[in-house]
Amino acid sequence: MIGSLTTLFLVCQILLGLLLLPFPSSSLPLCTDLWAPLVPNKTLTFCAYNGSVCCDSSKDLQLQKQFQAMNISDEGCASLMKSILCAECDPFSAELFKVKSGPRPVPVLCNSTDSGNSSLSKQTTSSFCSNVWDECQNVFISNSPFAPSLQGRGGVSVNSSASQLIELWQSKSVFCDAFGGSSDNGSICFDGDEVSLENTETIVPPAGLCLEKISNGSYINMVAHPDGSNRAFFSSQAGKIWLGSVPEQDSRGTLELDESDPFVDLTDLVLFDPSTGMMGMAFHPNFAHNGRFFASYNCDKVKSPTCSGRCSCNSDVNCDPSKIGASSGVQPCQYHAVVAEFTANGTASDKASAKPSEVRRIFTMGLPFTSNHGGQILFGPADGYLYFMMGDGGSKGDPYNFAQNKKSLLGKIMRLDIDNIPSGEEIDELGLWGNYSVPQDNPYSEDKELEREIWALGLRNPWRCSFDLERPEYFLCGDVGQDLYEEVDIITKGGNYGWRVYEGPLLFTTEQTPGGNTSANSINPISPILGYKHSDVNKKIGSAAITGGYYYRSMTDPCMYGSYLYGDLYAGYIWAAAESPEGSGNFNSSSIPFSCASDSPIPCGTVPGSSLPALGYIYSFAEDNRKDIFILTSNGVFRAVRPSRCNYTCSKEIVTAASPSPPPTSNYANQLTVADKELLLFLSSLLLLLGYIL
């Protein structure tokens, strides 16, 4: 009984800690079409929005005409209605209009005297929704956006000519129930002005990152098993995948993985050298039942009869492979990028092996050069589609301008539907590169110049991307630079990240331009949220290469919670970045100390002449089902552990002898909502009841 109560107490303590952590904002600067806001080429003349906005001059004119057609005679009401219409230009209009819940004619109007969380929006001293009712209830508004038929909520029964709010809605309370809302728990609402996020706390970088070494194995990928267990898949660049068991925190255990018994061996298919190999693997969200998994790798058509596909250097992209010539004895499009599907053997609960024979070839494309192939694949947690990260194809400076060419898939992030496979005739008719379909809401639906598969463009060599577990719209990618700058980008629908017009925030000039140029004035690039110059981190070698990471969402180190961790290939630097204000898309980054716990189950060793742990090269960061963060390196697998194990100070860490540390409670208690307090009361009652029963 005592053991049961102890376990229950620890579980509830962790649950309470989860509740008491700060709520991440669900907002990110996005427009109603889910594209990122951009700086318009011309200043808006009707809507008073500056900087990065969600309107161009054409949309601005459309809103002006819509406003004029309303024929509002009352000056006060007219001013409010103009601001409501222009909310479409707000950088946070996707959240204001709740586009993920379906279309709505107006933004959510603030309907509270308390903003709920002042870090998300300005303090509202009066209800904007109430103001709109008071000013406009008796004013005639033609083509009113507040018609009940548009909102689908309970207005009064009126004829189609009704145009006053008092005719459309029974009362102010009913009106504001339909159109109002508050900014509680990460939501934002419209108060008549542009959304302005405010800082409410000083961001203090973590004291350091404490690591333990749990394996000497060198792996390039790690993916948590979709069944939610402590198991995870590990893969090598050469083409093998293993299924291993991750030890509990504080157990001093090591990774249980038998390299002599791989889950699947694809080395016969994979071309392995320093710049090629099996770069990605992904497991279907329903893998536990259907056994479907996917590998992204390179192959050589000279060595493999199954390695064949269309060449990415073709007339559609203004490229002639015969004019490129061989590179180190390799002909253009001799190497290919492949995504292939495989199936695991075994029962639904224990799929412990797989056959190395393909079920189907999802994607195949010949590569013009021998480097910058990207290769990571991920399933989107919100949409279930497969995201495929592709580099610019190689050769210094992207001479053929593939990354900016909207007809090329090089230098892009693709978004594919692998659950709805079209017929062979449809694949040929649409000019697809394999067995997949294209989601209907891919950016090509709004930009007809784009190839169907493209989700984002203007990347050089995206190396390690991840979705935030708590906010899946935060899709962050590290993008390896050329000579000067390494960057992290928030990837959004249709986003252009600038390469090769820009390298990070810096204008870039290439030495050769057989594929033509893209002028800086002709694009509207999205700037990186984080980055560093090569000279800042690697003065001796004169080179650097970013390894993108993960948002830290584990309870193991509460002082690291909410930070985005990333590093450099050469393992001398690891950064923790914090968004400030929360939900703004603006980040501050700090290089943080990192060290190895003295009681690490496998000694870490140190870099000669340094106190740094001997990580070797940082290939990837990873995350398991417990949300713990791992670093995959040339010297082994390292896991982030409690800061106190490295003598790092974290005031939020609660050290217990029997369990990992739960997150803090005192600092965030004032952010609990009524629903949270009710849940706390329920948990307390549950403890008492179970204590009585046991």
Q: Strands, helices and their partners?
A:
Elements: H1 2-20, H2 57-69, H3 75-86, H4 93-96, E1 109-110, H5 128-136, H6 148-151, H7 165-168, H8 172-179, E2 180-181, E3 209-215, E4 221-224, E5 231-235, E6 240-245, E7 264-265, E8 278-283, H9 287-290, E9 292-300, E10 335-347, E11 350-354, E12 360-366, E13 377-379, E14 386-390, E15 412-416, H10 424-430, E16 454-457, E17 462-467, E18 475-479, E19 485-490, E20 502-503, E21 506-507, E22 530-533, H11 534-537, E23 546-551, E24 564-568, E25 574-579, E26 587-591, E27 594-596, E28 618-623, E29 629-633, E30 636-640, H12 674-693
Helix pairs in contact: 1-12, 2-3, 5-8
Question: How would you portray this structure in words?
Answer:
The chain is of the alpha+beta class. The protein has twelve helices and 30 strands. The strands form eight sheets. A five-stranded mixed beta sheet has the order 27-3-30-29-28, with no helix packed on it. Strands 8, 9, 10, 11 and 12 form a five-stranded antiparallel beta sheet that branches. A hairpin with a 7-residue loop joins strand 25 and strand 26. Helix 2 runs antiparallel to helix 3 and helix 5 crosses helix 8. The longest helix is centred in the last third of the chain and has 20 residues. The radius of gyration is 27 Å and the shape is globular. The N terminus and C terminus are likely disordered.
